[in-house]
UniProtKB/TrEMBL annotation:
Transmembrane regions: 12-32, 58-79, 308-325
InterPro entries associated with the record: Aerotolerance_reg_N, UPF0353/GerABKA_families, vWA_BatA_type, VWF_A, vWFA_dom_sf
Source organism (scientific name): Lacibacter sediminis
Keyword Transmembrane helix included in the entry's annotation: yes
Protein name: VWA domain-containing protein
PROSITE patterns: VWFA
Domain VWFA: residue ranges: 96-288
Membrane as UniProt keyword: yes
UniProt KW keywords: Cell membrane, Membrane, Transmembrane, Transmembrane helix
Amino acid sequence: MLNEWYQHIVFAYPYLLWLLLLLPLLIVWYIISHKKSSSSVTVSSLGIYRKTGSSKNVLRHLPFVLRLFSLALLIVAIARPQTRSSEERVEGEGIDIILCMDVSGSMLAEDFSPNRLEAMKKVASDFVDARKTDRIGLVIFSGESFTQCPPTTDYAALKSQIYAVRSGILQDGTAIGSGLSTSVERLKTSESKSKVVILLTDGENNGGLIPPSTAKEIAKAYQVKVYTIGMGTEGFAALPQQTTGGVVRTMEKVNIDEKLLREIANETGGSYFRAKDNESLSQIYADIDKLEKSKIETSTFSRYKEEFYPFAIAVVVLLLIEAWLRYKVLRKFP
């Protein structure tokens, strides 16, 4: 308990603690001066009085010890021990961001570890952790789109929704236009000066009621910047398929409409990225994090509580005990 208390103590004048080095010098001085003042004469006829005043002989060094302790406590007290409590207040202008994620069946391909979907969820969660004052939402799409989480600053709730994403909960397909238009819909009433969609897909648009070109124009109309990410390795990727005999892995060709994704990004003021493995995917989200920085001001307030009072009280008590011993118990009569 005492050790825990000491770990939270700071000193206003820590350099005064160097005065504690005087204490060993005082002890040496006391020993030397006491030896010089001691008598070396022995009178055999007084042997019967040897036990007289033995208790005083035991106590005669106690006043010095008490004064030494009181001096040590006084030095600690004038160094002003304090406990500090700090409060940090973060203020700033945040960005409204929608994470638009493809959850089609092809996102189970295993060219990422353990697969594309799980790798995407991991880096998206890390991205959320890096933000401070932004409102972030989640839209998922396959053959249709759905708002999994509206824009929020409750990052714990958002991350739980990210990890709850599963393939197969929506009609299969790749409706890029629907996913983008739903994302813009969540941002169009935002009063934030910067509105961003991070759209990730591993395929080509093959479904949905809204063409990607129309969704792109809607994003431009509402001044929504779109960063697009094509996810998948070159060539073929292993895709698990559930059959009556169990899970069978087939090699599927990776088809990403990079031209479309680059066009959406360029015309809305964003950028296009290609992720071919876990490391490049993590780096892409880190790069977007650097490109879209919030204006954050951090103010730290520190409160100090003085803790020298117990030391000062202990000094007074020790000096009173010393005085009582010196002038009452150990008093020398002429």
